[in-house]
Amino acid sequence: MTSLQLPQFRCRAAAGRCDITPPVGIYHRMWGAALHDQATGVHRPLTASLLWLEPVDGPDSAARVILSLDHCILETSLQQDLAADVAAATGLDPDCVLVTLTHTHGSGWMALSRSEFPGGNLIAPYLQDVRQKVRQLAIETASRRQPAAAVIGTGTCSLARHRNFFDPLRGHAVCGLNPAGFSDSTVLVARISTENGTPLATLVNYACHPTTLAWDNTLISPDYVGALRETVEQHAPGICVFLQGASGDLGPREGFTGDTGIADRNGRELAFAVLSTLQSLPCPGTRYAWQEPVLSGTWIGRWAHEPVPSEISQTFSRWTWHRLTVSLPWRHDLPRLDETRSSRDYWLAQEIEARSQNDDAAIRNCRAQAEQMTRQITRLEALAPGPVCPLNVTIGITGDCLWFFVPGELYQDLQIQLRQRFAPHPVFVTTLTGDWQPGYIPPASSYGYGIYQEVIAATAPGCHELLIEELTRQTRRLLAEHCQQP
Fold this sequence. Notes:
This protein is an alpha+beta fold. It has two domains: 3-282 and 318-331 and 394-483, no CATH class; 337-382. 31% of the residues lie in helices and 29% in strands. It is built from ten helices and 23 strands. The strands form seven sheets. An eight-stranded mixed sheet has the order 6-5-4-2-7-11-12-14, with helices on both faces. Strand 16 and strand 17 form a beta hairpin. Helix 1 packs parallel to helix 2 (123-142). The radius of gyration is 23 Å and the shape is globular. The two termini are 22 Å apart. The mean pLDDT is 94.
C-alpha cells in the first residue's frame, strides 16, 4: 500500500438549524418513576437540525434531506407530516425527507394522546409551531445549497456502555450499566465543506441512548447531545448534526440522574472524540501518498498529501438511494389490549389509595406501573394490522459512503455487522427515522431473559437477524449495479 485515502463524497449541500424548545409548563413526564408531570424550566434548548444533500449533477428531485429533531419519540403521523411539510416547501417527494430523532429522554413525551395530562393542553399548539418552524427552516436551508465535499473519519468514544445488567440480589434483569458487557465505541464523523474550504457541517453518528437525565429531572433538555453540539461548534465552524445510531442496548456510562452537569460532561466527552477525529481529516480530494526515500541518519520514507487521481475522484460523485419495505413478523405472544387496559385501571385506583395514605414510595410505584400499561396500550394501538410489521428502510450510496435510515430502535449488533460486511465503506446507521414503531428489535439470543427491550418488543425473535440479511442483500445489489462492486 502506497497511499492512505479516507472515504469521501461530493455533492451540493447546506445545513440549517432552528430552536424548537417547548414552553415551560408543558407536559414533560417521560419516565414511569417521575413524580412530576410538567416541565419546570429549560436546561438547554431543543433544536431541529436540517442537512440538505443532493448530487453534483443530478436533478434537484434526487436530493435527500435529513431532519434531526431533539425529541425522544413522536407520533408516526407527526413524523410523516413533517416530511410532507418539508417536501411541499421545497418541491421534493416526501420519501426524500428523512425525519429522525436524537432520542433525548429529557424532551418530554410530545404526543396528542397526552393532552389530558397536566400541561398537555400545550402540546398541540407546540407541535403546530414546530411544523411551521421546520417548513421555514427547509426553505432557508435549500436556498443556501452549494457545491460541497465531505471527508469521513472514524474515531472512538467510551461514553456508551452496555445496558443489560443482571441484578444478583433480586435475581432479574435491569436496564442499566453492565461493566462486563461489550459496547461499540465507534464514532463516525463527516466534515462537509464548500469548494473553497468553508465548513458547512459536522455530521456525528454515534450509538448511545440519551438517558443521562431521568425521573428526577424536571427540565426540558437535549441530554448529552446539547453539550456535544455546543463543544464541537466552539472548535469546528459549521452546524453539528447528530444522528442516533443503533443504541438499543447502549446507554451512557453514568446516567439515570437528575444532574444536568453530568449530561453536559457526557456530551463533552463525545465532543472531544469528534474533535480529535476532525483533526485527522485531510482536505477533500486529497490522499496521503508515498513520495520517495530521503537519506538522513538512515533512509527516511517521505509521504505527502497530493490530489486523488481523477479515475478515483470521479467515484466521489456516485449517488443512489433506494427505499424498501422489510416484512418482520409480529411476535405471537403480544399482550391483549383489554387486559392491558384493565391492568392500568387497577394501578390508577391503587395510586389514589396511595395518595390518601401520603405514601410517596407507593405513589411512585403505582404511577410507574400505570405508565407502563399506558405505553403498552399506545404501542398495541399503533401496530400495523396483519401478521407482519412493514418496516420502511432507506439505503443510500454517496461516493464511498453507505447510509441506512431505519425506524424503531435497533441493537448495536446491526451496525457492527453492516460495518464489517461492507468495509472499507463507512456505514452510517441512523435509527428512529420516519417512525419510532415497532420499538425495539432485539437479537433472537436476548429473548426469554426478562430484559426490558425484549419484554416490550413487538416483533418476533429472529427479526433482527432477518433485517440484517435483507439490508445486506439489497446493499450488495445496489453496489453491484451502481459501483461495479460485488
